[in-house]
Design brief:
By secondary structure, the chain is α+β, with helices and mostly antiparallel strands. It has helices at about 1-15, 40-55, 70-85, 100-105, 115-125, 130, 155-160, 175-185, 205-215, 235-250, 260-270, 280-290, 320-335, 335-345, 355, 360-370, 375-380, 390-405, 410-425, and strands at about 30-35, 60-65, 90-95, 105-110, 135, 140, 145-155, 185, 190-195, 275-280, 295, 310-315. The protein starts with a helix and ends with a helix.
């Protein structure tokens, strides 16, 4: 079964390529492409392979890939290059970087290039939830590529051991606590040997996991214009309180902050029975789990839902008209149904258009990996990832205050009041 599936995947890539007409070196348009990953590793090989295949089918375009490190490193390097007059022409950066890139005058919208009926059909074919972090002011500034939602992974074997139905994950906050208590184990000395749940809260992504609590509690953290935040609303404070209570009151999760990188490791070795993380971890879990696992949407409080996440393609102002046209070819090719499906299968990110899910490769993949549809189906109730003008400063304020609550340095109400005050001060010039 798996061998046949891999053959199908290979054909999915190959099907997008065709013989190209004769050409000369002088006709080539060169593009510099920033991609957010450190050099080396499987993702780099996948990107290199796709770029190589694009060049074979588009010999008039030459892509120079630059692996710029983390998302934070990549946007910093791209903006430094922009200010120095040597920016790339195209880059994959966080969807939440959109306002910052616009404010810095670094990028241009795709709309002027989208002129033909074919282009318009392509541009309108992405999931609406992903476009919420890609458009503002009536313009399309980003094209979804490696996008995600937060999902809950759970260990079916540990569910069985706890007397829980392995095919029925918790669907509400109340069930999450109930299941978490049954899944938390201690030794004779009272030390926890297995946690019911881990939600990452350390580092740069605390705000994102927080949206997996605010969204189900029917609370939005910012407006579409990115110049207003709602951190001190009652429903937001309730969500912070619940996050705190999972560790300190219900005792189903470690106290303090939980590192983003160690959460999947804890899950894979059975240190936690459930974890919340990106669907982009699906391939990692599939390859390394020695047990049967399930994937579920975010548990509901008042509704379902998760923030979207991940990266978009951006077109930099540095591109000449010829480079802009070449960049559009590249972005269209990378996000075509066949290649979006192949990328999703290879990485675990969500295929960004409904058409990608209708390809044969994706249909075969879903038969083998039914967990993949959870993130897609959750898009129906997903919201835009937290993003504002001066995004890194505002996000840091929110992260710092969330972490203050989780380390018992502040109460939820005080932390959110402080975060609102400081964010308002930063956003005042953008109103």
């Amino acid at each position: 079964m798996r061998r046949n599936f891999l053959k199908t995947l290979a054909f999915a890539f190959a099907g997008a390529f065709c013989a190209a007409p004769a050409w000369t070196q002088a006709q080539q348009v060169e593009l510099e492409f920033y991609y957010p990953v450190a050099v080396g590793g499987p993702i780099t090989k996948i990107v290199d392979g796709m770029v190589s295949d694009f060049e074979k089918s588009h010999p008039d375009v030459k892509i120079k890939s630059i692996y710029a490190g983390s998302y934070q490193d990549s946007v910093a390097k791209a903006l430094t290059a922009h200010k120095g007059g040597n920016a790339p022409q195209i880059a994959v950066l966080l969807s939440t970087d959109m306002f910052t890139l616009i404010d810095e005058g670094a990028i241009v919208p795709f709309d002027p290039l989208i002129t033909s009926d074919e282009d318009k059909k392509w541009a309108s074919g992405f999931y609406k939830a992903f476009m919420a972090n890609s458009q503002t002011g009536g313009k399309t500034w980003g094209i979804p590529f490696q996008r995600s939602t937060i999902v809950m992974y759970y260990n079916k074997e540990l569910f069985k051991q706890a007397g829980l139905d392995p095919n029925t994950p918790p669907g509400t906050w109340e069930q999450l606590v109930e299941y978490g208590k049954k899944l938390t184990k201690t030794d004779a000395s009272g030390q926890v040997t297995q946690w019911g749940l881990e939600i990452p809260s350390g580092g740069a992504f605390a705000y994102w996991l927080f949206q997996a609590l605010t969204t189900p509690n029917d609370a939005l953290l910012m407006n579409e214009a990115g110049n207003e935040v709602y951190m001190d609303k009652p429903a937001v404070i309730e969500a912070v309180q619940f996050w705190h209570d999972l560790a300190y009151k219900h005792k189903i999760m470690p106290t303090g902050t939980i590192d983003w990188g160690t959460t999947p490791k804890d899950f894979l070795v059975g240190k936690t029975a459930m974890m919340w993380t990106t669907t982009g971890n699906l391939t990692n879990v599939r390859k390394n789990a020695t047990f049967e696992f399930g994937v579920a949407p975010m548990p509901k409080a008042k509704r379902g839902g998760s923030p979207t996440g991940g990266g978009n393609f951006y077109l930099f102002k540095s591109a000449t008209p010829e480079q802009q046209k070449a960049a559009l070819k590249f972005v269209k090719w990378m996000t075509s149904p066949e290649n979006a499906a192949a990328w999703s299968i290879a990485t675990g990110y969500v295929a960004v258009s409904p058409a990608a899910w209708e390809t044969e490769a994706m249909k075969n993949y879903v038969k083998e990996v039914p967990q993949a549809v959870v993130a897609r189906d959750q898009l129906e109730v997903s919201v835009a990832e937290f993003s504002t003008h001066d995004n890194q400063r505002v996000t840091k304020i929110l992260n710092d205050n969330l972490q203050a609550v989780l380390t018992n340095a502040k109460t939820p109400a005080q932390a959110m009041k402080d975060a609102q005050r400081d964010a308002d001060r930063i956003l005042r010039p953008y109103k």
